[in-house]
Specification:
alpha+beta; DNA Polymerase III, Chain A, domain 2; 3 domains; 12-stranded antiparallel beta sheet; 43% strand; elongated
């Protein structure tokens, strides 16, 4: 096996595929690597932990067909470290040899027989505009749980709704919902649960592209962008009935500048230590933010706002509040509340496509 290519092209492919390589103990050693296969003038790279698989293909020169598996992180670090320009790769007596300029590296190859081959996706392909999907994913994925003890909550629900696609994620403390009108990738009434980790990787791959091809099967989802394909197993189980969590009406509504609110939360948060919430006192024309940490100190800041409703104080986890405000596009954000103990909703002022629901923190 032998090939020659440009360092930057190889680095991009290795970086993309190595993020899917297994990092947890217990997996076959080869799954911590990237499988590299040369056929003609094409090099195929694959990284997988069996739940998530990423494949990239690039053109190469001076090639001899062959296959090997190299340690994902180490190979990526080496290619990143060498000088820009031509890189030559060869497999010699069980060792991967990489040469660039006056540098030469030899790596012990991992056993190729332990690297399980993945089947080609068979589901019907649907092409989707990438920019809208990327924006929706960035708004919703943040609300998914990172706790594997509740696998259902580590996924993002994709559901076919009238006129488009709905994305929903929750970790039981907050919920993000985004509608994509006119986007159809599912059959009528179909719902699938895609791991949030896979969709986070997808947002990286979608950067700067116009379209993505989506294939949703019975047990896996596949996303293709140019010469890169990401495939992930779907999560089995029933997603919570999220609609019952959304208040049907909210009598109190605050409208405030998005950037001014974000800046104020970040400053006040400096005194929100040890899981201390940030309190929001809502009044007619003033929003006051306060954080008090015993034996440390306190901070407060006022922000101009428009408020309609009963004066109240409601407290939130500052990190969750920041992520909710960041998810809202536009110059202003609307915060709607029922009372200090019921979920609040954050929305854009001029759109109904996004909803970020946040549970308040009970304070004395």
């Amino acid at each position: 096996m032998r090939f020659r290519t440009e360092r930057d092209h190889l680095l991009d492919a290795l970086t993309t595929t190595s993020r899917a390589a297994a990092t947890r103990g217990g997996a076959a050693p080869a799954l911590s690597g990237v499988r590299m296969e040369v056929a003609g003038d094409r090099l195929s790279l694959v990284g997988t932990d069996l739940d998530l698989t990423v494949r990239a293909v690039l053109g190469v020169a001076g090639a001899d067909d062959g296959v090997c598996v190299v340690p994902a992180r180490l190979a990526t670090d080496i290619v990143r470290a060498v000088e820009p320009g031509a890189v030559t790769f060869a497999l010699e007596e069980g060792e991967a040899v990489l040469s660039a300029g006056r540098s030469r590296f030899m790596l012990r190859a991992l056993p190729t027989e332990e690297f399980l081959r993945t089947a080609e996706p068979a589901a019907e392909a649907v092409t989707v505009e990438a920019a809208g999907l990327t924006a929706a994913l960035s708004q919703v994925v943040r609300a998914a749980s990172r706790d594997d003890a509740r696998p259902i909550l580590t996924g993002v629900l994709l559901a076919a709704e009238a006129g488009g696609l709905r994305l929903v994620a929750t970790d039981s403390y907050r919920l993000a919902l985004r509608d994509l009108p006119g986007t159809t990738v599912l059959a009528e009434g179909q719902r699938v649960l895609v791991p949030a980790r896979a969709l986070s990787e997808l947002t990286r791959i979608l950067s700067g592209v116009a379209e993505v091809t989506v294939r949703l099967g019975d047990d896996e989802a596949s996303f293709e962008v140019g010469d890169v394909r990401l495939t992930t197993r779907l999560i089995e189980g029933d997603f919570p009935n999220y609609q019952q969590l959304i208040p049907s009406a909210a009598p109190n509504r605050l409208v405030v500048g998005r950037e001014a609110l974000l800046d104020a939360i970040r400053r006040v948060k400096l005194l929100a230590r040890e899981a201390t919430p940030v309190r929001l006192r809502m009044d007619t024309e003033i929003l006051e933010l306060t954080a008090v940490t015993q034996d440390v100190g306190q901070a407060s800041e006022e922000v101009d706002a428009k408020y309609e409703g009963t004066e109240m104080v409601v407290a939130f986890n500052p990190d969750f509040l920041i992520e909710g405000v960041e998810a809202v596009e536009g110059d202003e954000v609307s915060i709607e509340t029922v009372d200090p103990l019921k979920p609040a909703t954050l929305r854009p002022v001029d759109s109904s496509d996004l909803l970020y629901l946040l549970m308040p923190v009970r304070v004395s």
